[in-house]
Amino acid sequence: MAEKITNSLQNQSPIITNNIIAKPSSEFYTVFSQKEILNLIEALKTRREIPLKYSYKGAGANIWDNFYRKLIVPNWYRSNVEINLLRDNFEYLNGKTQNCHKVNIIDVGAGNSYPVKEYIRKLDKLGKINRYTALDISEELLDVSKKNFTKWFPFIKYTNSYIDIENNPIPEYLLHQNGINIFLHLGVTIGNLQHRIKALKNFRQSMSENDLLVLTNEIGNNSQWDGIPRGGCYYHAEQIYQRINKNIGIQHQDCELVRKYDETTDSVVANLKFTCDYTIDFSGTGIDKKVVISKDEEITIWRHHKHQLPELIQELEQAGLKLVHHSTNKYQSHIMAICKIQA
Description:
The chain has helices at 2-11, 26-31, 34-47, 60-71, 81-88, 90-96, 117-125, 139-152, 189-192, 196-206, 231-248, 309-318; strands at 20-22, 103-108, 129-136, 157-162, 180-185, 212-218, 255-262, 267-274, 278-282, 289-293, 298-304, 321-328, 334-341.
């Protein structure tokens, strides 16, 4: 009998004694909708990633707002890239809308709306602006945008709305038939997305014949990254790492932040690497799901993909868009691409 019991125990799966259970905080369930939580769980399970776009929600909005405010303060070695590129391309954009009495600015990923402040002011002086629409995945950042914009421009029509441009085109009720729509997708947002072409297709679906899409991104070869984290890869990734640990319930001693070049996605990423086995238990608010992550596994919490011009043109064409004008900043590190729908 003893021999049978011993054999039976040997045939059973080994009991994991060092697996740690993490439970997200109450703030986590307050900030994210059930749909967003399910999408996040699916991303964790299928590609070991917490999408960067979710880092701008809740307290993450203040983190980004504070980070970006530091970037807009000019000094002897740095000035804001988006503001400068919009300034450099104002004459071209204004020329393209010369035959139109009014333009509507639809700012996708608007954040705190600081990058468009100077551009809107110029349009306003020319009497060219009809309405400014701020769209973002973060309701908290939309609140910041509204506060800023209505303070700067109390007499310009302002609207805002939630949108996830990777998964949805812009709703028709936010598009305007009177005048040309200029869609802005500034910062390096396009380079942070998991599904760039899908997002571009959603822009294409939202655009009419005379509308323009204006986007900015870093340019260069991702694989030649020198291994030194800078800008968002350093400051923003570190803050996201701290906040994820707090909101997901992961202890700092059980993980580390790893930044590296990821060949699979041709991107520079920041990953949370686990130093022991973990189970993340998403059982709050009726969601009965768990994600098991083994020791030494990594989950991506920040990513960025630089474009090279031929690649950018190819991705635009795959989405049904055509590059009609582009320029770079003085350091040749960032590009502004102006696009229309393909004929």
